[in-house]
Amino acid sequence: MGMIRVAEISIGVMSRSSRVVGTLFGRNRQEYLADMDANSMERVWHGAHRKAHEKNWSSIFVWAILGIMSISVLIAAVPK
Predict the structure, then answer these.
(1) Which domain holds residue 18?
(2) Virtual CA dihedral for 24, 30, 34, 39, nearest 10 degrees?
(3) Is the pLDDT of residue 1 over 80?
């Protein structure tokens, strides 16, 4: 009997926490997408794609700089 009550409480807490997460961002994702028309969906997609592409190039640049620095440290560490 006690285990069933614990399960009911944990299920209630989980459903309440998912509602809190849904309202944390203002609205649920389904409601947000249902309010959008085709043009705004397309603008959102292209904007997100462009930001992802820019982030990709910046991370490539950072990794290239780190690689060059590590190679120069290795070259400097070689005894002459």
Answers:
(1) 1-35
(2) 80
(3) no
Residue 3 confidence (pLDDT): 53
**Residue found by looking up tokens 């620095």 in the block:** 69
What span, in angstroms and rounded, lies between the C-alpha atoms of 9 and 52?
41
Residue 17 carries which side chain, given as an amino acid letter? S
Give the chain's domain count.
Answer: 2
The reply to whether 14 and 48 lie within a common domain is no
- Report the C-alpha gap between 26 and 35 in whole angstroms: 13
* DSSP H/E element including 30: helix 29-35
Write phi, then psi, for 26 (nearest 5 degrees). Answer: 95, -60
Which pLDDT tens digit goes with each residue over 49-77? 666 666 677 788 899 999 999 999 999 98
